[in-house]
Task: structure prediction
Amino acid sequence: MPSKRAIGPLDKRNRVSRCQACAARKIRVCHLRCQAQTKRNPGAVFVHHPGRSEGAAVQTKSLPKPIPEGSEIRFLNYSIALLDSNRFVNNHRTLATEILPLLPTSSFLRSAVRAVGALNASRHGSVCSDRGGPNSAYFIAFSAYSTSITALQTALTDQSIAKRDDVLWGTFFLGLFELMVDPSGEGWAKHMLSGTSKLLQLAGPGDTMTASRRTFFNVFRVLEATRAIIYGHNTILSMPSWMSLQLQLSLQTTGWSAMDEMISLMIQVSSFSARFFESIPYLESLDTGALVDALGREGLEVQSSIYAWHDKAMLEFGSGELVDAEFHLALACCHTLLLFLSNNYNYYPFWHDKPSPRLPQDKPRGHVKSILHHAEHILNTSDVSSVLLIFPLRVAGTQAESGMRARILGLLDGVFARGFVVARRIQDDLNEVWDDQGSLIPGYDNDHEIY
Result:
């Protein structure tokens, strides 16, 4: 048993925080297994601070617990906890139910889930987050991620890969991992476009969906719509066959889903936006008046669809039905789409005196205020995934007056605090936009790190 360390006559401390053996080894605080240490409260370490009142003790933060052998269950629990605190769809509570049966037979999915769980664990004080050692959760997270990439490459050689739900869910977890570690967001976009979308295309929308695949498809829709509209890409979800599948699935549900229809509008706007920008080079030539008019009319039709959704949403709101966080997200996206569509036409001179979905000068401010109101509600009161606010906040920032900009950066801080480092990229983008506009937020420091 470790002997208690003696206090010398000239030592003004009334207690010490380590035994003689630990002092000889130059260990600042005894190891948790040291009996001299654990005689105190096992959940806390008491240290003496000079200058405090005689005999006073300060309870410090609990020491992180070392990762035990066989920590698969622990990291699985942290993965599930992350899913529970980041709702992508209304039935998100069933995600764990769909994923757990796939784990025993899929080394790829197990590694991807372990990577996300270990990364989430590394950001909590109850688990050792020392990045330096191979037993740290942070090290384990990246090791599992590397293993999952290798396992995915092996899975891609399977002729029946398009039928494997475990591979689809694995790409979801890999994308989630990227959103948590890669500020650029490029890794997530790559997994969504080159991974998940390709697998769904191979299977096709005509195949009978398992319960697991149907749940996955609902999650995929909201993330893929976000990716497509942020990056200005087309998406398989805009293809007639996939739109028909969504219509069939929506007919099987009861009641009106505001977010389901909003996702369809996001897909419509992203598809139109991609064609819009493909047409811009042709507008530099002569005799393009007909094309300018056609793009203006089509933009107005898209805008009318957004307004029609908003009118329907307001009727639902006025009916006294409970307005949940998903409804707030849908409303935030509605105001975002109107700004996004207007911005596209504002950037070019061709529609300054022609019919188009450009908003009057007094309208953007109201849309920005609405986006911020709904975003604050989501961040402060709900478990809706904060990463879904990236698109609304990015677009709101392009039209935000100087008094609203610090508020937007604060909301992006909230997204970052929930584990999504991609929020830093959006802050940097907006600061560049505001710098070009001559009003960079003075003294705002983006140099933060998350663990």
